[in-house]
Amino acid sequence: xxxxxxxxxxxxxxxxxxxxxxxxxxxxxxxxxxxxxxxxxxxxxxxxxxxxxxxxxxxxxxxxxxxxxxxxxxxxxxxxxxxxxxxxxxxxxxxxxxxxxxxxxxxxxxxxxxxxxxxxxxxxxxxxxxxxxxxxxxxxxxxxxxxxxxxxxxxxxxxxxxxxxxxxxxxxxxxxxxxxxxxxxxxxxxxxxxxxxxxxxxxxxxxxxxxxxxxxxxxxxxxxxxxxxxxxxxxxxxxxxxxxxxxxxxxxxxxxxxxxxxxxxxxxxxxxxxxxxxxxxxxxxxxxxxxxxxxxxxxxxxxxxxxxxxxxxxxxxxxxxxxxxxxxxxxxxxxxxxxxxxxxxxxxxxxxxxxxxxxxxxxx
Length: 364
Hints:
InterPro entries: Seleno_YedE (IPR026366), Sulf_transp_TsuA/YedE (IPR007272). Pfam families: Sulf_transp (PF04143). The chain crosses the membrane at residues 6-24, 63-80, 92-114, 126-146, 158-179, 191-208, 229-250, 265-286, 298-316, 336-359. Keywords: Cell inner membrane, Cell membrane, Membrane, Transmembrane, Transmembrane helix, Transport. With 364 residues, the protein is mostly helical. The protein has one domain (2-363). Helix content is 64%, strand content 2%. It has 16 helices and four strands. The strands form two sheets. The chain has a two-stranded antiparallel ribbon with strand order 1-2. It has a two-stranded antiparallel sheet with strand order 3-4. The relative contact order is 0.23.
């Protein structure tokens, strides 16, 4: 029974993720954004020209390091296994939806925890939505929802994402002029490249070993009262909270938080989408990167879907806009455009349709 309550590897991973977020923020990453899978995939999408939002374009070494760290450890410990074939097209669409929901909130589940630790109380609303989304996903899982099984494939298939990330890092280091790189805004704020890369390699390896997953922690607690993964979630929160207190960067409140908006209904609904979709996929965006590094081709397709979703969100102005001050120093509450609101509703319809057509009766 004790094994269900605490796992030293998960605790260590949670601490290192929180510490990495603090260190990378201190060294230049945007405030409360030491690690954000959705934001960083969005920046990469912009850097390779998939969207033209010039304030969010950068090759984030954190994503590359996460994948290569997990890949290296999976090979070392014999857990690398090339497999695919579990409803790849559907996973692509769900990956898009998850990231669109996250960018409505302006952060993936991991950044939600980091924002909360830094005092951004808008993350409370998002956390509530995230939990509701997970509960909806669990409801359909209990009804028999499944994206079917995957199958062993050629080993070379499992190297696709790690190979792409290696090539991307080499090109970024040797020919940076190939990429679109922000001159201002969040994309222009970043820690030194090699430090970000090395820190992420360590985090990726630990995440591969521990199976850390923000969605899995809440899901397992609800279904089985298993707190192992949830403990990692809590340790990240506490590490960032204590670290921000020590560094003097803890600033509690709702308005004018870094890259954040206080339009609560859309924070809530965006993270409902992220939670629901992640349960359907079997893991949060952070976990999908790790699974892809282990050779899971379905997670590779999901990651590509997330990149496409981030580009789609910015090309069609679906993502959230931060709170700001106008020229008279009056607060302008951010949020999302009317197009974004329609897209959120459309994403709910998409997830609902996918949930029902993948129930056992619908498959007969």
